[in-house]
Every structure is written in structure tokens, then in C-alpha cells.
Specification:
Blueprint lengths: L1 H12 L5 H12 L17 E6 L12 H9 L11 E6 L3 E8 L2 E5 L4 E7 L3 E6 L2 E6 L3 E6 L5 E7 L2 E6 L3 E7 L2 E6 L3 E7 L2 E16 L2 E17 L2 E5 L5 E16 L5 E6 L2 E6 L5 E8 L2 E5 L4
Parallel strand pairs: 3-7, 3-9, 4-8, 4-10, 9-11, 10-12, 11-13, 12-14, 13-14, 14-15, 15-16, 15-20, 16-21, 17-20, 17-21
Antiparallel strand pairs: 1-17, 2-5, 5-8, 6-7, 17-19, 18-19
Length: 302
């Protein structure tokens, strides 16, 4: 990865990126977090069934070499020079693809039939193809508004991702950074190496994978799919009239807790495994963690 570090330092020397941006890029190249970084205080939410699992702990996986590949790709020619905040509008476009090496992404619902962008700092390249707007940024924040039924694909090496209000499937891949999705009815696919995943007001099919990060899910409608984490806690907040079948598994060390305030039926129970039905159990969500807790609690009433 030394070649990528050298390229970053040359960009800093040439004044194309700031010292802060260079630091974030270099950290993204070699980031590795220890297991203690992910210890969270346990919060008790009232009476619940408690299932304890004790097995041998496992170390966290290393950050993949995809970071170096992404940095090398971002060094290619064709990027706009950094400057003040800029904006772009693309009438007639509905889909968005963003590939970012370092920077935060914020995507919200906007007007029908138009994708609008604003971006600041770093080096940014924007183009369109068919109905899709494609953004590549090396070190800069991007904010976008787009139609609610537009497809979203986000690939980030280092930076936080926020997406709100949408009806189409959302795909997010990150190496280092938190992912927050709100009011999304089309389902979501999230893969992250190091970062928390927060899904608030979501429905549809969910595929969530994280190596080291907590996952919080508050559904607004029917959900299905799977959630897996190596080292992190998973919390699912369900309404009292939930209609869901949960298959919960802990491979190594952790607790499974189910809120007694939620009407439920335990179908299967063994060491590190619980199959529980809420309502008719019309859809299925599988939750697996290697070293973390699984907490199924009652959602707050509004």
C-alpha cells in the first residue's frame, strides 16, 4: 500500500487535497480496530426472556485490500480540482451511483425526475449514463437529492453514509464509517467492515453484513432477510402487533434477550439459538452474530 500513500502525499504537496483529507485517506489504507473498540454498555429495557451463550472469543478480521484498490482507482485522471462548494443538476435522471474514497455522503428525497448534487472539498468527477448519475470522489463530502423511486448505490472507503426517504432498494458498501437509513420502503443491502448500521423506519427485504459494528433496526412495515455481524450487537425494535418469524443465532459469546412486553411464541431453543414467532410469523428475518448480543425489544410508541 506504500504506492498509494506516496500518491496521497504528492497530492498534498501539490495542494490538491488538504492535510485533513490526506490523513483520512492514509488512515483508511491501514485502519484496524481492536475488539475493545466495540464494547458498548448494556441497556436494560424492562422484563424479557434471557438466553446466555458462552463460547470462545474470536479476533476481528483485517480490513481488506480493496482500500488500496479504491485509492489507486481514484488517482486516475479526469477529476475536477478541489475548490468551493459546487452544485450540479441532472433533469430526467433518477438513479445514483457514488464511489468515494474519503468523505461523507448524504442522500435525501427530492423532486421527481431530477438528481441534484452539491459537493465540497477533495477531487470530484461527475457524469451521467442513461438514467444514472455517477459520482467519483477522492476526498470530499457529497449531498444529493433524487426521486423517491430512484435506485441508490453507494461505495465508500472512509466516511459516514446517510440516506433518508426512498421507495427503491438501497445498496451501501463501506470499509470505515457509519451507515444510517431512514424512512426507506424498498429494502436495503448494507455491507460494512467497520461501522455501525442504523435502520429507522424501514421495510422490505434487508441484507445487512458487518464485521465490527452494531446494528439497530426499527421497522415501519413488514421486513425479511438476514443480518450478520462478527463482533457487534444487534437490536431489533418491534411493534406489539409484529408479524415476524425471527431465527437468532450466536456462535461464540453473547446474550439473546426478548422483551416480555412483546407477545411471542418460542418455537425452538438451544444453546446459542432461538426461533421465535411474533403474530402469524408471515415473514422471516435471520440474525446471526459471532461475538455480540441480540436484543429484541418493544418499539417506543409515538
Amino acid at each position: 500500500m506504500s504506492n498509494e500513500r506516496d500518491r496521497i502525499l504528492r497530492l498534498l504537496e501539490d495542494g490538491k487535497i488538504t492535510a485533513d483529507q490526506a490523513t483520512r485517506l492514509i488512515e483508511a489504507l491501514g485502519s484496524e480496530r481492536s475488539e475493545s473498540d466495540f464494547e458498548m454498555p448494556h441497556t436494560h429495557f424492562g422484563p424479557r426472556r434471557h438466553f446466555r451463550v458462552h463460547t470462545r472469543p474470536r479476533g476481528l478480521a483485517m480490513v481488506p485490500d480493496v482500500v488500496a484498490t479504491a485509492v489507486a482507482s481514484a488517482m486516475k485522471k479526469g477529476f475536477a480540482e478541489p475548490g468551493e462548494e459546487r452544485t450540479s443538476e441532472f433533469p430526467g435522471k433518477r438513479d445514483l451511483l457514488v464511489k468515494s474514497v474519503s468523505g461523507d455522503l448524504d442522500v435525501t428525497r427530492g423532486e421527481e425526475g431530477r438528481v441534484a448534487l452539491s459537493y465540497s472539498g477533495g477531487m470530484v468527477k461527475v457524469r451521467s449514463s442513461g438514467e444514472q448519475v455517477i459520482v467519483r470522489t477522492m476526498a470530499g463530502d457529497v449531498a444529493a437529492t433524487m426521486p423517491p423511486d430512484g435506485r441508490i448505490e453507494l461505495e465508500v472507503v472512509s466516511g459516514d453514509v446517510s440516506v433518508s426517504q426512498g421507495n427503491a432498494c438501497i445498496e451501501v458498501k463501506t470499509v470505515s464509517g457509519d451507515v444510517g437509513i431512514k424512512q426507506a420502503a424498498g429494502g436495503a443491502q448494507v455491507k460494512t467492515v467497520s461501522g455501525d448500521v442504523n435502520l429507522d423506519g424501514v421495510s422490505g427485504d434487508l441484507v445487512i453484513e458487518t464485521r465490527s459494528g452494531d446494528v439497530d433496526i426499527v421497522p415501519s412495515g413488514p421486513i425479511s432477510g438476514r443480518v450478520s455481524t462478527v463482533a457487534g450487537d444487534v437490536t431489533v425494535a418491534l411493534p406489539k402487533d409484529a408479524d415476524l418469524l425471527l431465527e437468532l443465532d450466536i456462535e461464540e459469546d453473547g446474550d439473546i434477550e426478548v422483551d416480555d412486553d412483546l407477545p411471542h411464541e418460542v418455537l425452538e431453543e438451544s444453546d446459542g439459538h432461538l426461533k421465535v414467532k411474533f403474530g402469524a410469523g408471515s415473514s422471516t428475518l435471520v440474525v446471526k452474530t459471532s461475538d455480540g448480543d441480540i436484543d429484541i425489544r418493544a418499539a417506543e410508541e409515538h
